[in-house]
Amino acid sequence: MGNGSSTSSRFEVKKYILKKNLKKDIPSSLVVFLVALPLCLGIALASGAPLFAGLIAGIVGGIVTGSLSGSQLSVSGPAAGLTAIVFAAIASLGSYQIFILAVALAGGIQLILGLIKAGTIGNYFPSSVIEGMLAGIGLLLILKQLPHAVGVDKDFFGDEGFLQKNGENTFSAIISAVGEFSLVAVVISVLSILILVYWPKIKKLNAIPAPFLVVAIGIGLAMAFKGTSYGLEKDHMVNIPVFSGWDGFLGLFTSPDFSAIGRSDVWLVAATIAVVASLETLLGIEAIDKLDPIKRVTPTNRELVAQGIGNMVSGMLGGLPMTSVIVRSSANTNAGARTKMSTIFHGTWLLLSLLLIPNLINMIPLACLAAILLVTGYKLTRIALFKHMYEKGWDQFIPFVVTVLAVVLTDLLKGVAIGMAFSIFYLLRTNMRNPFFYKIQEEGDKKHIRIKLAEEVSFLNKAAIQVLLTGIPKETNVIIDGSNSRYIDPDVLETIFNYKHNAYTKGIIVTLEHIKSHYVVPKLNSKIVEEINN
Fold first, then answer.
1. Angle 113-116-119 (CA atoms, 0-180°, nearest 5)?
2. pLDDT at res. 324
3. Closest C-alpha to 507, from 443, 455, 446, 453
4. End-to-end CA distance of the chain
5. How far apart are CA 271 and CA 173, in angstroms?
6. DSSP string across 232-257
7. pLDDT over 90 for what percent of the chain?
8. Distance CA 74, CA 178 (A)
9. C-alpha closest to that of 410 among 170, 176, 127
10. pLDDT reading at 318 higher than 90
């Protein structure tokens, strides 16, 4: 009786939690769907691939990768950071069929990386760099979406690079857009932003998601001005492939050319995609975990496995390579998603929209979707975040600001690499300053110096220790204490032993306490290792 009652009670609790989460996951999935749709198409266009290839990657990223992933908020799909690689690869390999073979092979490499626990590299990105990357993406969204918000759509929707393929850059595109704006697009954008900001604050109206209302009003205004001098052009609207019948749908898919599997250039492209996609994914996962209000931690190795299987499926169906994408994931989080069901639903909506309502989807103005991304960008790069990082000190603030600027002025991976360089500089500087503590006592004319070494003394501390020892005056008693040290680098040990050997020439008596002749790098506790790897 007791066990049956307990099981029933647990079932009811799970049912309640699922129902409660779905109330947030379904509306947020619609937001991600609306954002992902033009991004998938824009990235496919910029990559020189069929438009449908971007949608395949979005659908597979939502349903397949979303189901397998351990992340509750991450959204996967085609990434702007891969467009240059994809464009060059399609041209160099000779055909799109050979390229998607490379995508499937890249997925296999990612699967192996996940199985051999390579995902732990994600734990080595400093918090200041990850926060800077998020703020940089937010600022980038604002700058990149402004032209689309005013109806100037010369650049593809979702571009994240500073230098654009149309010859403009991020800033010149905004200046150009000022003189070419569409009045209807501006009205739609402004109205959309006002709705997105203020509609959720009216509790009685929360049953209707603000982004859904934004799209409905956008379609209405576009229809109202259609045929007039103020009407929106086709370039200002979403444009997904329209097909007729089941045969037409199946005809959109492409199969890989397996006859090229022995070519070295195919494997080189596959390895390049696998490495870059894995790095973007690990960065994205780390960033989204920071945005998660519940502060859940994603198992990185499982994520690589999920991404690998997703890319294998996407490649086999003719789709683009995918990663965990910060823009879509941020929109998902800001829309209030609670579980991975939002990601899975967004992939389902992409598939159903393509099958059932392509003509209706093609009536959505890009200005509506730009407004959603503008609001998302503002939340990512809020002023409070800059104040918070400033209060942490210069060693956190400078890498943060450098990463923000580098992401905006280059691209995601280059920006993070530059931020990492600054972060490592401050890390090394801090590490070099703290290899020891010392205390000086005087007895008559004789000085006694006790040098207590830190817990970890690395090669980077060698110079500081050497400077200290060289500066010790003659006729001094020196005690070098290693009782706190778990590890002392061999080069530092050599410096200490050489100093002791030669110090007598200066009348210096050196005593070594708790210093071994050899140290082994301390190993992590097996339970900790298992937890990290999972």
1. 60
2. 96
3. 446
4. 37
5. 34
6. PPGGGB-------HHHHHHTT-----
7. 60
8. 35
9. 170
10. yes
Quote the DSSP letter at residue 321: P
CB 369 within 8 A of CB 212: no
Amino acid at 195: I
- d(C-alpha 504, C-alpha 516), whole Å: 21
Q: Provide the pLDDT confidence category of residue 438 given band limits of 50, 70 and 90.
A: low
Tokens matching residue 246: 């089941």
Handedness of CA 113, 257, 348, 10 (dihedral sign): negative
Q: How far is CA 449 from the centre of its chain?
A: 50
How far does CA 91 lie from the centroid of its chain? 28
Helix axis angle for 300-317 and 264-291, nearest 10°, is: 130
The secondary element (H helix, E strand) that includes residue 326 is helix 326-334
CB 120 within 8 A of CB 301: yes
Backbone angles phi, psi at 191, to 5 degrees: -60, -40
CB 238 within 8 A of CB 364: yes
Q: What is the largest CA-CA distance in the chain?
A: 101
Please tell me the distance from the alpha carbon of residue 472 to that of residue 439, in angstroms, as a whole number.
12
| 76-78 and 446-453 beta bridge pairing | unpaired
> Is residue 238 a contact partner of residue 41, using CB atoms and an 8 Å limit?
yes
Phi, psi of 152 (to 5 degrees): -110, 105
Q: Provide the strand spans (E) within 3-127.
A: 76-78
Domain 434-513 = CATH 3.30.750.24 = yes
- Dist CA 188 CA 194 (whole Å): 10
Percent above pLDDT 70 for the chain: 93
Q: Is 25 exposed, middle or buried (0-12, 13-18, 19+ CB in 10 A)?
A: buried
pTM over 0.90: no
Angle at 45 between CA 40 and CA 49, to 5 degrees: 95
Q: Are 133 and 287 in contact (CB under 8 A)?
A: yes
- Phi and psi at 64, nearest 5°, equal -80, -60
- Number of neighbouring beta carbons within 10 Å of residue 22: 16
Residues of the chain with CATH 3.30.750.24: 434-513
CA–centroid distance for 316 within its chain: 25
Nearest to 39, CA basis, from 71, 75, 63: 75
Which pair of structure tokens corresponds to residue 404?
């923000």
Does residue 440 surpass a pLDDT of 80?
no
CA dist 54 → 163, 319, 427 (Å): 22, 6, 40
**Whole-angstrom Cα distance, residue 429 to residue 447?**
30
Angle of helix 51-60 versus helix 300-317 axis, rounded to 10: 140
In SS3 terms, 142-200 reads as: HHHHHHHHCCCCCCCCCCCCCECCCCCEHHHHHHHHHCCCCHHHHHHHHHHHHHHHHHH
CA dihedral 254, 259, 265, 266 (to 10 degrees): 40
Helix (H, G, I), strand (E, B) or coil at 25: helix
